[in-house]
Amino acid sequence: LLFPVSNLCGKCRPRDTDLLQPALNFLYCSLHQTTPCSQQRAVAVLLSNVSLLELLQKVLECTWLRSPPSEPAYLSPEDALLCSGWLLVASLLLYQHRYNTEVHQTLSIDLTEVLNAVIFRKKKPILLLVSIMQFLRAVLRQNFSSSLLVIVGQNTAQGAMQPQPSPQDAALHPLATQQVFSLVVSLQNLLVHAQLQKYLLLSQAVVACLETLVEYLYVKNQEVALHVASQPWHRFLLSTLLDEGQKSFLQPEVLRLMTLFLRYQSSNIISQKEISQVLQEAAETNLAELPEATSCALHLFLCQV
Fold first, then answer.
1. Are the C-beta atoms of 66 and 81 separated by less than 8 Å?
2. Which intervals of the chain form a coiled coil (predicted)?
3. Which of 12, 23, 85, 98 registers the highest number of CB atoms within 10 A of its CB?
4. pLDDT tens string for the chain (305 positions)?
């Protein structure tokens, strides 16, 4: 089925949402819900389809061309297609890297536009933000070095008139230091917003993106990474997340954030008392009844401690 569906996608235009939406979702599910052996073949099939990749390029570019809806939570058919496109490309990045699959057509991505989509939001629907953050995580985990992607943007342009980047910016290339700080502040604000509005999917995506960003920074420039991890605003962020009543320390997002602060030695963010409270709550809980996400987050926290 991958052959006819991917070929059908390649013959479509981005405005053919009724056809493309289920087709891209089918391709996405085919990648994620198959055996490892079949998964490798599926990636090869999709990455060898030049028409499909050209279509995905056009779909992603529509993200910056569309006017934002009046209500950011509203997901139009066009926005739903964008979500599918970003998620499929993020998955292709992941599996192309895993299997070192040959690439027949590259995708060109404007990094500044991707970052600005998260930093400024511009009334983008929650699901579209989550999808773009999934893509951002994928490129961060690969250090922007995927053979499937060509990264463009103001920090990648070459020319005689370009000012010499600072040592910090050069170390973080293609990111700029100011972009990193703006992105961190926006992720913090998004997490508070997600907590207040009970957007669980957004909370999970933001924490995962923050984790991946700090990991990327630590490889590139440890000083910047430790500076980001020890920002005083994280203290307020943690306090906001903990304002949830009983067993609040055993929320997956809280545990993952605390693990992140412990990993990068942010003693000004998380105290010994709070570590003890987590251990106390865990001791009083039937661990077998914990949801899988909480159980995994608690395991990582305890290993870090």
1. no
2. none
3. 85
4. 999 999 999 999 999 999 999 999 999 999 999 998 899 999 999 999 999 999 999 999 999 987 665 555 568 999 999 999 999 999 999 999 999 999 999 999 999 999 999 998 877 899 999 999 999 999 999 999 999 999 997 554 444 455 678 888 899 999 999 999 999 999 999 999 998 888 999 999 999 999 999 999 999 999 999 999 999 889 888 888 887 555 578 889 999 999 999 999 877 888 888 899 999 999 999 989 999 999 999 999 999 99
Half-sphere exposure of 178 toward its Cβ, with a 13 Å CA cutoff? Answer: 6
Residue 142 one-letter amino acid: Q
Tokens at 59, concatenated: 């779909």
Cα–Cα distance, 122 to 68 (Å, whole number)? 7
Distances (CA, A) of 252 to 3, 72, 144, 256, 292: 39, 26, 28, 6, 9
Evaluate whether 99 touches 40 at the Cβ level (below 8 Å).
yes
CA distance 227 to 303: 23
Complete DSSP assignment for 85-149: HHHHHHHHHHHHHHHT---SS-EEEEHHHHHHHHHH-TT--HHHHHHHHHHHHHHHHTTT--TTE
